[in-house]
Fold this protein.
Amino acid sequence: MISFYPGPSRVHDEIPKYVKDAFTAGIMSINHRSDDFVSMSEKTIKLLKQKLNIPRNYTVFFTSSATECWEIIAQSIVTDKSYHLYNGSFGQKWFDYTKRIHPFAEPLPFDVNEKLDPKKLIFDLKEGLICVTQNETSNGTQVSNAIIRAIKKNNPSYLLAIDATSSMAGIDLDFKSADIWLASVQKCFGLPAGLGLMVCSPQAIERVKTINEKNHYNSLMFMTEMMDKWQTPFTPNVLGIYLLMRVLENMDAIKATHDLIEERYNKWIIFLKSRKNIRHFVNEEAVQSYTVIPVTADEQTVATIKKSAKKEGILLGEGYGNYKPVTFRIANFPALKEKEIKTLMKFLEKY
Ligand SMILES: *Cc1c(COP(=O)(O)O)cnc(C)c1O
């Protein structure tokens, strides 16, 4: 089965070998306070910064999932109000979880085909948090680096938190333009699920220390103290970190990956434009995601495609929410192979 599901998604071919290596090297039972763990953790974070172009003075944290990162941010960074810009299910969930902890969380929904206008996003409090989903996996839209940069520039005293779960390691994100970036590894990293990543600017760490929230095992205060020693407050997914390290060692620089992903996205756009019965779900090209391609058609066509794809050994991503019956999604993640994409295009040619 070739998985085009946008997460959990196709893993890199080398994963079984790395798992075996981990077992042989005793990684699966190493103590998370040992020197061996510390040097592996340090190496993984250095590689991550190097390969993804993350500023050196940013702090990287290991968590269990992107969802956990949402909660950590709500617990340790929000004191009163946060603004949530979203146009899809993941952004809305982030808002929902935050609101349960801080009732003044404010939703700022926008349209799937709407390009955010930073001039209209100037907030009036002295400080606070702005949350943006860079790549909305549920509907295949994205917010550009330029818009993220402008939002931060217009609101310098705010922390800007970015959910990049389905784009980190797939596209070239401008990490220095925001304060908190979160992701999990089962999307563009091509790894099995169970590990989340959070990347924080010095301004974010400063805010964490000012707020000094210490009510949870994963309060960012504790996490920061432990990460000074390349460790985590809890026993982390050591195998996941090891696999991440191995994948990073072989990873191209993010600029090269970005170019490949954008080129493949362009091919999908051209391909979909010449189909009769299916088309890209998002009309506004300026907001189309590079890493998740949502496709729409009438209900019957979508049902037929999903069913016959399975028979041909192709797994497509389900549509989301209300659009489930009339959409499906195609991951455009780096672990996918050229010939697998060709196979899917050939299958979809008749529609
Ligand atoms: C997949 C996804 C999440 C949730 O990730 P988990 O690892 O399941 O917590 C959050 N945000 C976005 C944009 C996603 O694509």
